[in-house]
Amino acid sequence: xxxxxxxxxxxxxxxxxxxxxxxxxxxxxxxxxxxxxxxxxxxxxxxxxxxxxxxxxxxxxxxxxxxxxxxxxxxxxxxxxxxxxxxxxxxxxxxxxxxxxxxxxxxxxxxxxxxxxxxxxxxxxxxxxxxxxxxxxxxxxx
Length: 142
Ligand SMILES: Cc1cc2nc3c(=O)[nH]c(=O)nc-3n(C[C@H](O)[C@H](O)[C@H](O)COP(=O)(O)O)c2cc1C
Ligand SMILES: Nc1ncnc2c1ncn2[C@@H]1O[C@H](COP(=O)(O)OP(=O)(O)OP(=O)(O)O)[C@@H](O)[C@H]1O
Fold this sequence. Notes:
It is an enzyme of class 2 (transferase). Keywords: ATP-binding, FAD, Flavoprotein, FMN, Nucleotide-binding, Nucleotidyltransferase, Transferase. This protein is an alpha/beta fold. About 35% of the residues lie in helices and about 15% in strands. It has a 5-stranded parallel sheet with strand order 3-2-1-4-5, sandwiched between helices. The structure holds flavin mononucleotide and adenosine-5'-triphosphate.
């Protein structure tokens, strides 16, 4: 079984998330998703939804075989446990492919790092960003 890992915050699901996970699932036979802990989401506003709620919703998506909450301190602990063949970064994720490849090599993990493609909006009002969904809620309800 070729194991693939995808990861992200996944706060308030939208079709961009689904596209990423479908893309990642197509790169192997079993898709594991690591959901970022709120305390580790420091590069943008923290998620609105609780850690466990985000894991439950991601687990329910069709391309996903297993979703789990990430490690609090060391992002490579779940990777060592899953032992994937491929790690798929999101099209806009800030992680550096080379830095991850080097860290994997240092830990003796034999795994390829790839990037998923982006999904563009297919109709006028489609929102493919959690941040933009929150902005629209604030605009319309506050
Ligand atoms: C290979 C890899 C493993 C990760 N593992 C964890 C983890 O164990 N715990 C965690 O809180 N975040 C982990 N992260 C970070 C987040 O999943 C996520 O990449 C980061 O917060 C960016 O999220 P965004 O794409 O939703 O903005 C990992 C990221 C990568 C690239
Ligand atoms: N439109 C999209 N097309 C493809 N992948 C996407 C799209 N939107 C999000 N993703 C991917 O889903 C994963 C999780 O994304 P994240 O939880 O940061 O959502 P987001 O909507 O991009 O959030 P924000 O709007 O707050 O930046 C990331 O790997 C990201 O690249």
